[in-house]
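Researcher: Checking consistency across runs. Here is Adenylosuccinate lyase again:
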Amino acid sequence: MNATLLSGSQSGVVSRQATSRRQQRLAAPVSRVGPCRPVATLAAPSPAPTPSQAPQAAQAPAKPTKLELSELTAVSPLDGRYGRISAPLRSIFSEYGLIRFRVLVECRWLQQLARIPQVTEVPPLSPEANAILDHLCTPEGCTPEVAMRVKAIERTTNHDVKAVEYVLKEHFRTNPELAAVLEFTHFACTSEDINNLSHALMLKEAVQGHVLPAMDALISELARLSSEFAAVPMLSRTHGQTASPTTMGKEMAVFAYRLSRQRAQLASVPFLGKMAGAVGNYNAAMSAYPEVDWQAVAAEFVPSLGLEFNPYVTQIEPHDYIAELYGAIIRFNNILIDFDRDVWGYISLGYFKQRTIAGEVGSSTMPHKVNPIDFENSEGNLGLANAVMDHLVNKLPVSRWQRDLTDSTVLRNLGLGLGHALLAYASSLKGISKLQLDAARLAADLDGSWEVLAEPIQTVMRRYGVPEPYEKLKAFTRGQRVTQDSMRTFVAGLDGLPAEAVEALQALTPATYIGNAAQQAADI
């Protein structure tokens, strides 16, 4: 009870009662393990620290050394450890790449305005003026130095697209013709008119120039394996248990076909764009030039960039095509994960050996190891790629009302998932290049699995009306050790089969019971 709430007499009573209780507790015998410290010791306050023992003031952490960006200092392994593989994407998805495509769109839009007869304030441009704009649309014209100037101005504007406009005006002032139409730079545009077209151009260059060729290389290698191993019999495994035989080539063909379908779906996704102003209605453009059919202008301009025009938009192009595009890549990647894991398993079973490379180390402590690291690296990077792209698939099509800004920071990661995917594709290709089939190991596995012939034997028995064929083979094989001799003895003892059927079954082996697997592999 709080003593400040009691009267003086009440406080005294409570104090005496508490003292009496403490004395009783101290007087009671105490059972402890080990000696008990004296009461006085327990009650004595800790001595005050001497000046030399006084706690020191917290030291501020040392200022970290500023490190220049390199493979050793990059935060992302895509730009560090794996920079050699992801390097081709830097000119596309880096900050410089985004600025480069924004400059291209702004210059092409000014050229488009000059082709509109009603916009008399921007007359047709001379070859000299067009040459300046065309040059700025190239990497040689829009150099990293130009992009650095944009970033310098952005430190003042705190707006990246406006900074691009200001830098372009600096360039245009050097030409009297372009200087005369200076304020038609970024005319009637919202930032998203420039951004959505830039993003579409970035994705198109990356997909067509890098992603599809890498996918094609994988599919080509799997088709090669399909052909090379078309007739090599292999024991199948369903649920991890022995099953009807196939061929190694046919299993490779399955992956080649599956990946080809997803590759085709990716290639069919259109790259959409808009140029419709702040909310998708051409409001600003129509207020200045109501006599111009601005939707028709946009429908002409967007395809001139190599993109497909989207007529129904808000402030943003809704990004549905980006979700479709990444969705196709995710499906391709999931199939490749399936392939990586299967090959990993085949290596574990001894079906494949891996070509060793002089100087490589498999384990820091086990010298014999030759690990399937390429397929493991691929699987890990495919998981990272899919995680990033899955967020893009689910986030980008969703925007509050006519636009919110949640897509902006996400779109700056367009290249991240693709970078991890390309890294994974390169790893799988490297792993495939090391594979060496051990046909003897596959043959030995088949020869130890005669029980798989239970399927064809009971199926032939069904044809000829032998009663309870499944049940007979189940009793003979399930959980039993079946050999070539025991299987042939079983077939010889069957009643009701014609002699030619018995002869065919007697000649059948696990290695020859492969159906049309070899033909399927050859046909891929």
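Researcher: Does this match what you'd expect to see?
Model: One thing to look at in this run: Confidence is low (pLDDT under 50) at residues 1-15, 29-43.
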